[in-house]
Amino acid sequence: MSAATAPAPPDAAPDAPKPRTRAAVRSGGLVLGLVLLVAAAALSLAVGTKQIPLDQVWSALFGPSGTENDAIVRDLRLPRTLIGAAVGAALGLGGAVMQTLTRNPLADPGLLGVNAGAAAAVVTAISVLGITSFTGYLWFALIGAAVAATAVNALGGGRWATPVRLALAGTAVNAALFGYVNGLQLWHLSTLDEMRYWSVGTLAGRDAALLLKAAPLLVAGALLAFALARPLGAIALGEDHALALGTRVRRVRVLSVVAITLLCGGATALCGPIGFIGLMIPHAARAFCGPDPRWLMPYCAVFAPVLMLVSDVLGRVVVPPSEIEAGTVTAFIGGLLFIHLVRQRKVAQL
User: Fold this and answer.
1) Taken in order 159, 160, 163, 168, is the CA torsion positive or negative?
2) What is the pLDDT of residues 144-163, one digit of tens each?
3) Nearest one of 173, 128, 123 to 147, comparing CA atoms
4) What domains appear along the chain, each with residue ranges and CATH number?
5) Is the distance from CB of 338 to CB of 279 less than 8 angstroms?
6) Which of 23, 125, 206, 264 could bond 114 through an S-S bridge, CB–CB 3.0 to 4.6 Å?
7) CB 103 within 8 A of CB 253
8) Which residues are CB-contacts of 170 (< 8 A; sequence separation ≥ 6)?
9) What is the pLDDT of residues 127-138, one digit of tens each?
10) How distant, in Å, are the alpha carbons of 220, 225, 280 from that of 107?
11) pLDDT-based confidence at 10, cuts 50/70/90?
């Protein structure tokens, strides 16, 4: 038999397909997240006390208005869905920045006192100034979040702050502010009645005007967070490595605090404190995309709104015709998922 027709050796095999690269897998995860986000938004528009078919949702969004379903979709559910997506993305991004900055995969945006500062400002506005509108809550919550985050950063050492000192300062400021909130609520029972609806965290009753007022802050915080992705990745390797790579560590730390304040302060001002999203989503995403903030932040910006919207939809249908606030559902779902994650053999690390 000639060499040209000789059979291939037994150990020869056809060329194996090239394995997918890490970047391709990560990109596929983002595409999946976008598909899930569209599906969650569709559910948020269609599901509620009154179920509306998806074709009628489409008609209400892009066709002439005139029916009751059109009014429900356009005036009630569309603003609620947009606010839920914006709040979820802001909390997810804020959590990613916080965990990378502190090199702690269990850090929460509330560690900087954002939630406590917002709550203290809102309870003061209600009890002292008699403000009861969501618009009033918005600006006081933003100011309170900014003041608390600034105080934590200053107590943590300002430009020379370290992750450990920031965590200790945040714990102290949180305890003091929440003590102030609880004391003022007990002193003014009318304040307790107003405050308890805001403090549970809900998307109900919010309109598009609130989102328009908070949107510049959320957009600015998101742009700043993405701009800090590369230097934060260097800081995650350790300050000595970051300095060797030319990273201005102190400047990045201060700007990161600003980004967290804008994102989480704006989100808290819009719908009250929403727990677990900023803690659980970055931690879960890190298991799939790794610790690189250049991938972690897009993942959080896509998957956190999914959790937020799904939680809001579940809250509408669990005990009809009443609703369970989104903040309660996110805490329940996030707690279960987080317990599942920490029980795994391999837990994502920074």
Assistant:
1) negative
2) 888 888 888 788 776 666 66
3) 173
4) 68-342 (1.10.3470.10)
5) yes
6) 264
7) no
8) 110, 111, 112, 113, 152, 156
9) 888 777 777 777
10) 22, 16, 9
11) very low
